[in-house]
Amino acid sequence: MTKNLAGPVAVLGGTGLIGRHVLEALRQAGTGPIVATHHRRPPFDAPDVRWCQADLAVPEGAREALKGARLAVICAGRLSTAAELKRDPVASVTATLRIGVNALEAAAQEGVERVVLVSSTTAYPAGAGAKTEEALFVGDPPDAWFGVGWTHRFLEKQLEWYCARLRRIGAGIVLRPTLVYGPHDDFDPASAHFVPSFIRRVVERERPIEIWGDGSQTRNLIHASDVASAILAGLSGTDEGFSAFNVAAEQSASVNDVLQLLIELDGFADAEVVRRLDRATGAAALEVSARAFTGRYGWRPAMPLREGLAGTLAWHRSTR
After folding, report:
1. Omega before 208 cis (within 30°)?
2. Going by C-beta distance under 8 Å and a sequence separation of 6 or more, which residues neighbour residue 117?
3. What per-residue string of b and e applies to 86-111 under the rule 16 or more CB within 10 Å gives b?
4. Within a 13 Å sphere around the CA of 285, how many CA atoms are in the beta-carbon half?
5. H helices within the chain, ranges in order?
6. Residue 219 pairs with which residues in a beta bridge?
7. Confidence at residue 167, expressed as pLDDT on a 0 to 100 scale
8. Which residues of the chain have a pLDDT value below 70?
9. What is d(CA 281, CA 98) in angstroms, rounded to the nearest whole number?
10. Contact (CB, 8 A) for 153 and 140
């Protein structure tokens, strides 16, 4: 454990996809003490972790969770996938906004030394070329992600305000991961993004498996363990003030390639794939550059896509 990782450290959203991997990474690093929040999902057995049941949508819950914390990771919120936004375009967005505002205000009131806020690349405007960090506020997010994108933009600015202007938080690091996947992902058909959705369909031997569009659209997939290692890198830093970084895998993959890899990994030799050209596909690609974060912290993703998908598929098959 490095001196800079000495706790107490609070993980808001400890039962979510990223939160679970952050807790494991903190435990492996020997950080302590660790406090993690849970609300809708029950807590799980995690040695060296003290659980705090907290409704972060109300200010009191956030203040209780961050009481006495020196370091904080804010990865709590409602996932706003395309499927979730189609079902309800508002609820998940406003929930994430309330949680984020309360968590950051509580961190400022507590005088937390270092906060890592997990943001999102959905806040980037449309356009060709790899997005660098300074491009975030150049134009609106795409229509499909307008509410989500502006929510994350606002929370980033709130953290910057508390760090760089009011100086109520010592250091604030925003991390903008691309599409995160891994064990403990959301496999609910009503809300899952395309990777866990494909995994569920492959495991259940669904026939046919539909791809919306021709499948050539690309996505940058990053494993939750790599996001967790990036968060630990941010927590370990010594710089003060505010900074924001992209966190991305080194290469993107097409939707076709992801599905074919899952079919191969699970031995679904007679799978049928139908491409629905009449269905909306979203952006053809969103490329972001993680060079700034690598240059500052020396971080690089470690999980190859094939290995990450194989592990996620095996986890879902064993727990479904």
Report:
1. yes
2. 74, 100, 104, 155, 156, 159, 172, 173, 174, 175
3. eeeeeebbebbbbbbbbbbbbbbbbe
4. 13
5. 17-29, 59-66, 82-87, 91-110, 146-160, 194-203, 224-236, 255-265, 291-297, 305-319
6. 253
7. 96
8. 1-3, 281, 284
9. 29
10. no
Q: Are 201 and 271 in contact (CB under 8 A)?
A: no
> 186-190 long-range contacts, Cβ below 8 Å, gap at least 24?
186/17, 186/79, 186/81, 187/316, 187/320, 189/83, 190/83, 190/84, 190/87
Q: Which of 196, 158, 157, 149 is nearest to 17 (CA)?
A: 196
Q: Helix or strand or coil: residue 42?
A: coil
The letter for the amino acid at 284 is A
CA distance 184 to 178: 17
pLDDT for res 1: 42
Q: How many CB atoms lie within 10 A of CB 266?
A: 19
Residue 93: per-residue pLDDT: 94
Q: Buried b / exposed e across 36-72, counting CB within 10 Å, b at 16+?
A: bbbbeeebeebeebebbebbbbebebbbbbbeebbbb
pLDDT tens for 219-261 read 999 999 999 999 999 999 888 999 999 999 999 999 999 999 9
Q: Is residue 32 classed as helix, strand or coil in its secondary structure? A: coil
Task: State residue 238's pLDDT score.
Answer: 86
Which residues, at least 6 apart from 272, have a Cβ–Cβ distance to it below 8 Å? 207, 208, 209
**Rounded distance, CA 109 to CA 59, Å?**
11
Q: Take residue 17 and report the two structure tokens written for it.
A: 């996809």
Tokens matching residue 33: 């003490």
Domains of the chain are: 3-181+221-248+285-303 (3.40.50.720)
* C-alpha dist (Å) from residue 313 to 85, 108, 208, 270: 25, 40, 19, 18
